[in-house]
Amino acid sequence: MKKNILITGGAGFIGSHVVRLFVTKYLSYNIINLDALTYAGNLENLKDIDHCSNYFFEKVNILDAAQLKEVFVKHNITDVIHLAAESHVDRSILSPLDFVYTNVIGTVNLLNTAKEFWKDDFSSHLFYHVSTDEVYGALGNEGFFTETTPYHPNSPYSASKASSDHFVRAYAETYHIQTVISNCSNNYGPFHFPEKLIPLFINNIINKKPLPVYGDGLYTRDWLFVKDHATAIDTVFHNGKINDTYNIGGFNEWKNIDLVKLLCTLMDKKLNRQSGESEQLITYVKDRPGHDRRYAIDATKINQELGWKPSVTFEEGLAQTIDWYLENTEWLNNVTSGTYEKYYDNMYADRG
Ligand code: NAD
Ligand code: TYD
User: Fold this and answer.
1) For the CA of 295, the nearest atom of ligand 2
2) How far is the CA of 333 from the centre of ligand 2 (A)?
3) Where are the domains of the chain?
């Protein structure tokens, strides 16, 4: 059967890489990108593929059940890869309800639409839910998150993602819709909105603005190149076990301050600045409330069961990312004009 795959959040950071991969790799699939185009959604991210005959865009909010149904009918949707979400922890601390609406209620709306549309035969359809390792909470100095680590979300963002994961599981158990969930570590790469650590710091280094490191800077994150996340999603979509869950990561832990110093060193070279110049921009600021100390993914299962592994080292991925931001100043200027400045002042004003 021909696949008509609905990818939600396809105009966002990770979604745009997933859409591009599927549109260019699977010419026999129709790819329908459904996105509300919030501040984080940007069709510029897809302008290289928007002429492709197997690509379609629908500007729809996943909170709108009637419009979701229309899209399912219009495109005869066979599968869903669900990425649409509010995704920034700091914003979730300021406005938790936005996260409940999109991440929880929006996901349930989408599940209901799929369940109704596919109810005559669930066996040939898949609802793939893209989630995060943040649902597992924080690690101490030792250990990794595995697929059986109990959920222990600490931020409104991770609580909303954990809730949506539970609804996906519940729909599989209760209604027999076929699902799969993956929980990935922190992504980085091209088209990343400059509110998250790496793109925000790249932008600030370019503009010689302070680099606001939260707390003592010794928080640890496990970084994966976004194109490797997209290939992992491709692998899980096609070969993952139904109603199972997969952790995605590249065993690549960095303390924030070490990562920031590496970024400064690499960018000083690229920008022909004096060695050590950008490090002087580092400014320790007030910590994020409820800040998770350490994330680290055990990606053994996806590697051993499905044969997936990352394609680039962190050094390669970071170099590609920096080059991309330096070459795409128009994209960066567009997304940092207008409301971005207001966001930035509001978010960082009282961090000291
Ligand atoms: P993003 O914020 O860059 O993009 C989110 C996209 O969803 C945007 O295009 C936005 O317009 C769209 N969207 C938001 N609310 C919507 C709504 N109500 N209806 C329709 N569209 C809506 O996010 P991202 O970083 O690309 O993350 C994508 C997914 O991957 C999310 O589910 C996130 O939880 C998950 N994830 C992200 C990371 C990461 O490091 N960024 C890691 C693991 C998992
Ligand atoms: P972020 O990119 O927001 O991802 P997440 O919180 O989902 O892991 O942040 C990554 C790490 O960087 C996290 O420990 C918080 C820290 N951080 C800063 O120190 N300063 C900043 O300005 C930002 C945005 C993040």
Assistant:
1) 8
2) 21
3) 4-188+224-248
